[in-house]
Design the sequence.
């Protein structure tokens, strides 16, 4: 068997537009597991937001969350990798968001924080299934209440504003942090080494599986690093053209059981 590990993104890849795993995708994953293939999730979500899907698929190997900031053993809850955003950079980004009236959230382990609840915090709660915490002045909260560096920051706004913000923040912080658009409404900041590709390499090392025997499936800019790292990098059909340009195979869309197509084609040899 050529491929022994498959890393799959959640939103807009494994999950359809109803945020569900289709029956065919689920069957394909369980068939692959029975064949001896390791399956993991690689997502920008926090662990508790991804956990319902992890449990649905009975995944028992380490999973990649927070864009690769965490590699977590789901059986013990222990973080094999944990990389956070340096507080000076976090504070600078938050202060700029205040000036530009951009909604920003800071994350720590299983929760997230924002200054004032609004339509964007409500939108995120609906998408993630996890309720955040309104804390007032976010810079003060991180310094005096949380007293830890956040694992991730995310700006949520309309796609045109996110696109413009990306250009600005990438130019200002791109040498120090990972700055990327994960979904049209989300601009995310993580540690410079926190990528899905780096976390996938670490997982492959733990499982003693070389990159040539790994498949990575994703749809967005935050998936490019693992698509490039894997022996077979796959972009789902609804991916942006730039993401597709990094892939070796373009699968059907997330609403057309693209993950199942990959598994049956490359694990079972079915056309």
Sequence:
């Amino acid at each position: 068997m050529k491929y022994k590990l498959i890393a799959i993104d959640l939103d807009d890849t494994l999950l359809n537009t109803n945020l569900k795993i289709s029956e065919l995708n689920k069957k394909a994953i369980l068939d692959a597991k029975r064949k001896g293939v390791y399956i993991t999730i690689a997502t920008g979500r926090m662990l508790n937001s991804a956990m319902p899907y992890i449990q649905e698929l009975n995944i028992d190997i380490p999973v990649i969350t927070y864009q690769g900031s965490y590699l977590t053993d789901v059986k013990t809850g222990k973080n094999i990798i944990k990389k956070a955003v340096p507080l000076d950079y976090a504070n600078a980004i938050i202060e700029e968001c205040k000036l530009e009236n951009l909604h920003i959230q800071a994350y720590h382990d299983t929760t997230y924080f924002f200054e004032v609840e609004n339509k964007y915090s409500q939108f995120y709660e609906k998408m993630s299934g996890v309720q955040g915490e309104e804390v007032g002045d976010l810079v003060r909260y991180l310094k005096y209440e949380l007293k830890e560096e956040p694992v991730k920051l995310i700006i949520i706004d309309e796609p045109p504003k996110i696109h413009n913000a990306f250009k600005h923040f990438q130019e200002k912080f791109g040498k120090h942090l990972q700055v990327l658009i994960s979904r049209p409404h989300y601009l995310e900041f993580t540690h410079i080494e926190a990528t899905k590709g780096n976390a996938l390499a670490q997982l492959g090392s733990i499982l003693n599986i070389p990159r040539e025997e790994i498949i990575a499936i994703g749809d967005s800019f935050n998936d490019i690093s693992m698509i490039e790292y894997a022996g077979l990098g796959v972009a789902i059909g609804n991916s942006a053209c730039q993401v597709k340009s990094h892939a070796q195979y373009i699968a059907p869309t997330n609403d057309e059981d693209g993950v199942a197509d990959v598994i049956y084609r490359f694990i079972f040899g079915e056309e």
